What we know:
The protein is an alpha+beta fold. It is built from three helices and two strands; from the N terminus they run H-E-E-H-H. The protein has two domains: 30 residues, no CATH class; 83 residues, no CATH class. Strands 1-2 form a two-stranded antiparallel sheet. The two termini are 28 Å apart.
Amino acid sequence: MSCYVRDLEKIGFLEFIEERKRGNRLERVLQATAKCYLVSPEALGRLGEPPAVQPDRFSLLYLLSAAARAIRDLSILSGRAEKAGKKLAPLTLETDIRFANPTDRHAFAEELTATVARLSQKYNSGELGGRAFRVLVAAYPSIQTPITKEEA
């Protein structure tokens, strides 16, 4: 068994299930301890680069980078809030929209950008004592067919 598998077992990602004798060797059966894992953006190479490094805000790479950073940040903040005995106060807005054509999608993006910029300017206190929040607005095609087992 490779040292990587033992390391994963040692830190709790894998758990020992059983040992089986196979000829003159011993087989160890391990199982993942969680249904899914959060991978740090830094481990994703180019996909984990900060959004600022990705110049095209309409690219898949930019969105994946921003989403990876949001997942990492929320994981860290959740742990810190739990340790402090406090609740995390995020805000989530989610909706589906259908665009008649790419021109409408582009116009929507421009208007949304202007609106978010105006609201940010209006409510940004700029005071050191104020609580800072990151706002992430993302749009991607919604999945219209059932997700297969291979995709899940």
